Amino acid sequence: MSSHLLREAPTIDRYPRSNTYDPQWIVDNLMGPHPLWSAEALLQVMTLRPGMRVLDLGCGTALTSVFLAREYDVEVWATDLWVDPTENWERITAAGAADQVHPIRSDAHTMPFSHSFFDAIVSIGAYNYFGTGAEYLGYCTEFLRPNGLIGVIVPGIRDTPGGPLPSYLTDRWGTDMCTWLSPDWWRQHWERTGLVTVETADMVPQGWLHWLETCARVGRGYEPDENMLRADNDTHLGLTRLVARLS
Ligand SMILES: C[S@@+](CC[C@H](N)C(=O)[O-])C[C@H]1O[C@@H](n2cnc3c(N)ncnc32)[C@H](O)[C@@H]1O
């Protein structure tokens, strides 16, 4: 897709806050579907108040951490496993968010925080890597205060296709795709713990397009996903959005 078409793409209108950020900064640093569009889609159904302590879980290059701090005036612990926290600190400082964003390297299963410390947990494009196990929600919400919120955006599927999978899915197949799950799957998975009340479990409106536009914009290495998404044509694939409140 040319930059001209991308500028005109309808997704743009849905994310006015994200679209004030330098597109090159985002393209150079993103690790999945446009993280700022995803964060903004989440914050359209999840409220963060100024001064809240927020865990950005699986923050990657901390773009979302900077965005949350700047746009919602919260304090963010930018926590990730693969990305060097020193690199994140340089990005955070360069973005003028050093007073509000703290980079941390941690595995999501062994976090160094105090119990009940956070007002909210946000996880963009990462929770499916570590959160599909039955006990994980119980573990990570130990770090959330009572009545705190957890909000997640992950690659997802509207429903499991009946019969054999379409060839565009089998052509791209990898075990990562076993973690692309539906809003109903996640709702049940979380509700059966008895720990939270699920407030939202849906597909991000135009999430398929948002994901496709990201692949087209970035190019490098994203062509198989772009081909898969074009073939899907908004049938099964998109972004699953979840918000729940701790009891
Ligand atoms: C696809 S990237 C998304 C990063 C970022 N949120 C974004 O949207 O650009 C997935 C992230 O999940 C993180 N991750 C995967 N497994 C993890 C684990 N066990 N603990 C903490 N982070 C993990 C990786 O470090 C990676 O940065």
Classify the helix fraction into a percent range.
25-40%
Secondary-structure element series: HHHHEHEHEEHHEHHEHHE
Largest sheet: spatial strand order? 3-2-1-4-5-7-6
Q: Given the C-alpha coordinates, what overall shape results?
A: globular
Low-confidence stretches: 1-5
- For this structure, what is the CATH class? Alpha Beta
Structural class: alpha/beta
Specify the CATH homologous superfamily: Vaccinia Virus protein VP39
Distance between the termini: 45 Å
Q: What's the number of extended β-strand segments?
A: 7
Radius of gyration: 17 Å
CATH architecture: 3-Layer(aba) Sandwich
Q: How many structural domains in the coordinates?
A: 1
CATH topology: Rossmann fold
Q: Which small-molecule species are bound to the chains here?
A: S-adenosylmethionine
How many strands, which pairing sense, and closed or not: the largest β-sheet? Answer: 7 strands, mixed
So how many helices?
A: 12
Indicate the proportion of strand residues. 15-25%
